[in-house]
Structure formats: C-alpha cells, structure tokens
Amino acid sequence: MNLAQATVFLWVLGSLQAFEIVEKENIFQRTPCPAFLMFDNAAYLADMSFELPCHCKPEEVSAVVWYYQKHLGSGHTKVLADFDGRVLTEAAQVRAGSDMLVRFSIRMFSLLVFRAQPEDSGLYFCGTREGDYFYAYDVDIQSSEGMVATFKDQGQEPFADEYHGSLHVFTTFWEWTPCDRCGVRGEQWRIGLCYLQSPDLSPRYRKTSPDVVSCGSRAVPRQLRAKASDHAPELLLRSCLVPCEEKKKIQEGAMALFSYVSKVGSRPWLPQVPIQFHQQRLGRGLIISCPGARPEHAVAWDKDHQYLYRTQYLKGVNRSMRVFIDHGNHLHIRFTQLGDRGIYYCWRQGVRIAGFRLAVTSRGRYPVSFSSPEIRATLALTLIGYLLITAVFIAIHLCRCCCYLFRCCPHCSP
C-alpha cells in the first residue's frame, strides 16, 4: 500500500468513526427526556451484577452523575460519581458484602453495580453535578436466603399464585440456562422472582405490564408489600443431556516432547483444564468459586469422577448438609475432613474450565484469628453456655432464699 492509498484508508476510517459517534449522539436526540420524572422498575437476584443505562440527556451534557436514594424524598442521598480521580471498578475485584460505593462503575453514561445486595434496593437517578435529573430507575434486589427450589424430575410444581382481594402475587421466571454439563447428564434451571399486580400502585412508576411491578418496588404501598413478603424467589430445575463440542487435538510435536520428558514407557498426566492447588486445615470451612461465573450462569461441580448434582447438593435440600452448593454457584465445604481430598472441577455454561486440587492436613501451626467463623462460633457457644449456667445458678439460689424466707417468717407466706 502506497502513501496515497494509506491516506485514503485513514480518511475513510476516521469518517466511519465520526459517523459512529454522531449516531450515538443522535440516540439522545431521538429520545427526549420526560417532562415529569418517571421510574423504570427492574428486579434482580442478590449477588447479580446489573447495568442501568441513562437513556436520555441534553446534548450539552458531556458527563453524567448517578444518585441513589433509599426512599423517594429521603434526606440522605448518595452521589455515585467517578470523577476526582476515581478508578473504574472491575467485577473480579469486588467482594460480596462490601459497600455499594466500592461496587459501582460509570461507563458511557451507564451505571454498573457489581454483586448487588438487598440493601442496594432503591431509586437511582441519572443527572448532572448540579442535581438535575434526566432518567430514573426503581431497582428491587430480592434476597436468595428464602429461595425455594422446585425439581421438575420429581414431579414438583412451582408455587401457585396468591390472591388477596385485588392483589395478585405470582412468580415471573427467566429463560432456561444452558445445560451445565456436556457428554453426561446435566442440569439446567431458571430463576423466578416475585411480582405482583394491583390497581393501587403509584402512577409515577413505569410497568412492563399494566399494574405489574416487582414485589419490592417502591410503587407498592407498605400494606400490600407486607402481604407479598412471604412469596420468596423460586428456582426451577430439570435434567438435560447435550453432546460436547469437538476439542482440538494436541499436536504430535507437543506429545513427543512430553513423552521425552516423562519416564520411559510411561505417559505423563496432562490436565484438561488449569488446576489450582489449595491446602486446607482439617476441620475448617472452605468456599470455592468458579472463575468468571455469575449467579445467572449455568455452573456445575464435580469431585474427581463424582457429579455433584443440585438435586442432592443444593443449599436447603437437607439442613444437615456438610457439602452444598449455594444459590450463587459457590461450593461450600463445612468442617473439612480427610475424605474431602481430591480435585474439584468447575463447569461454566456447559464447558469444564477449571479444577481445584484440595489437600487436607492436620499438621502445622495456624494463627488464631477472631475473624474466622469457626472461632467466632466457638466463642459464642462458650459464652451462651456460661450465661445459661449462671442463670441456673442464680435461679437455684433465689429458690433457696424464698424457701428459707417462708420457713423463718410464716406470716409472709400467702
């Protein structure tokens, strides 16, 4: 390519980029901001990440600021802005339970909230530094603590709809996830969130259907929200079987190199996925996360050649479970035992992507930390035991004093 052709190519490329920028700006020109601020209702499950786009803004506004209020008109308002040198947050750096001010990011006028918690429910406003609002959302983060699992293979059915006069409470299910394993029997599920229908909703909130919003929406009056509080989110599961895609074979040269390095007459062990080693002390708890997985993803766990199906290992199936999978796709091992040694494989969206080799040891010194849940539970039980013993001791002595008083002073008895 000569100099003239390169110049023409760069000019055409620059024109296309400028056209793309103009098209993005025209989106805001075609979407006028409402004269009266309305709230779009959106519902998510706890630990999910979501994005709130600012659908409209004046042309002269080059940067937006997001605001958060727990209730409409409340005096306390959080300013969510990434100016003044703020570093954009990445989803991999966010921990569950951290404050919302370290779990959000603003990119291209959109607000991203990572690992949302029920405390993040409220009203989100898109505006300027001066406090002028353009667009607003009514976000409902529903907790997964009381989530109910329904297994279709066992003939179970979702909860029936509830009717309280003109109030209709029901579950709205998302699409089915892909099969969480391939080549063998897997599972797929769909998340259902609580919604309600009532003519008594606030008209300031937009609804996807007539008079229908999520159960935790600010459009629902307090008395109606109390009636729908017992309708928990649901998880619908069923079995599936899909074939695996053909994998690329290892090149013959690489196999020859491995054969040369290994012992004569033996074949080296080649892991199919990256393996991470972890050493755990006997009797302590462990939580394993699948890399890059989110609560809405299809995630599965295996221990060596044993498939850990949610039908048996889902949280809440059995209260005495020592090994279980929570609703956020994390694998929990309570009070690690020697039999827990092995490799735990993680599937994501039907593809096995990682492995964790777990070694359990009872030797070595470990520093005692009060942040450990086992240490805190032990201290709490010890303190409760001492309090019970003290209460029994005081009660016995009070009874003896009363008996002695009535014996010495008969006129005091009734």
UniProtKB/TrEMBL annotation:
<keyword id="KW-0325">Glycoprotein</keyword>
<keyword id="KW-1133">Transmembrane helix</keyword>
<keyword id="KW-0812">Transmembrane</keyword>
<dbReference type="GO" id="GO:0016020">
    <property type="term" value="C:membrane"/>
</dbReference>
<dbReference type="InterPro" id="IPR013106">
    <property type="entry name" value="Ig_V-set"/>
</dbReference>
<dbReference type="InterPro" id="IPR036179">
    <property type="entry name" value="Ig-like_dom_sf"/>
</dbReference>
<feature type="transmembrane region" description="Helical">
    <location>
        <begin position="377"/>
        <end position="398"/>
    </location>
</feature>
<protein>
    <submittedName>
        <fullName>Ig-like V-type domain-containing protein FAM187A</fullName>
    </submittedName>
</protein>
<comment type="similarity">
    <text>Belongs to the FAM187 family.</text>
</comment>
<dbReference type="Pfam" id="PF07686">
    <property type="entry name" value="V-set"/>
</dbReference>
<keyword id="KW-0472">Membrane</keyword>
<keyword id="KW-0732">Signal</keyword>
<dbReference type="InterPro" id="IPR007110">
    <property type="entry name" value="Ig-like_dom"/>
</dbReference>
<dbReference type="InterPro" id="IPR039311">
    <property type="entry name" value="FAM187A/B"/>
</dbReference>
<feature type="signal peptide">
    <location>
        <begin position="1"/>
        <end position="18"/>
    </location>
</feature>
<dbReference type="InterPro" id="IPR013783">
    <property type="entry name" value="Ig-like_fold"/>
</dbReference>
<feature type="domain" description="Ig-like">
    <location>
        <begin position="268"/>
        <end position="346"/>
    </location>
</feature>
